[in-house]
Design goal:
4 helices; 4-stranded antiparallel sheet; 50% helix; alpha+beta
Length: 169
């Protein structure tokens, strides 16, 4: 048995402890080389400590706004230390997206758990976009690289053809 004061003085607040998915809105930030990118993060979270949650947030909407603030701060700090090539690259071995996501999570996970009573289950980047100007520059660089490869292969073929013709003559 637990005795308490009447309803206006002593109330029971019930919170759902199931996991929730919070998708942030698109955030624009710059990489190390000042390349602007647009990122949409997501978080899977749940209430771990109801007392801390009640003292700091009271509602799920407040918790999501706090999460958004924490994510936004870590996004600017962490992505600003990495180059564009670590996020988007034609070589899969050079992409470090999971490591970058882990760095971002470490930057704010403890604060969410200790201060707000939230348990962060998963964090990730759902979408990664680049501005149209950046996209055009990337495609121009890709075309230039392909043209250099084409010229190299063509000149190598021409040299082999010339060697075959001279040998035949």
């Amino acid at each position: 048995f637990h005795f308490g004061w009447p309803a206006p003085i002593d109330r029971v607040h019930r919170y759902d402890s199931r996991m929730r998915v919070f998708e942030g809105q698109f955030l624009e930030t710059n990489t190390k080389g000042l390349v602007p990118i647009i990122v949409k993060p997501y978080v899977v979270w749940r209430i771990e400590d109801a007392y801390k949650f009640y003292k700091s947030q009271k509602t799920e909407k407040d918790a999501e706004s706090k999460l958004f603030g924490l994510i936004n701060n870590s996004l600017n700090e962490v992505i600003g230390t990495h180059s564009f090539g670590e996020l988007v690259n034609s070589d899969p071995d050079r992409i470090r997206l999971t490591a970058i996501q882990d760095e971002m999570l470490v930057a704010w996970k403890d604060a969410a758990e200790v201060e707000y009573g939230l348990k962060i289950e998963t964090f990730g980047i759902k979408q990664l976009k680049v501005n149209e100007d950046v996209t055009a520059k990337v495609f121009d660089r890709m075309k230039a690289a392909r043209n250099l490869q084409t010229e190299a292969i063509t000149s190598k073929g021409a040299a082999e053809a010339k060697a075959i013709r001279t040998e035949a003559d």
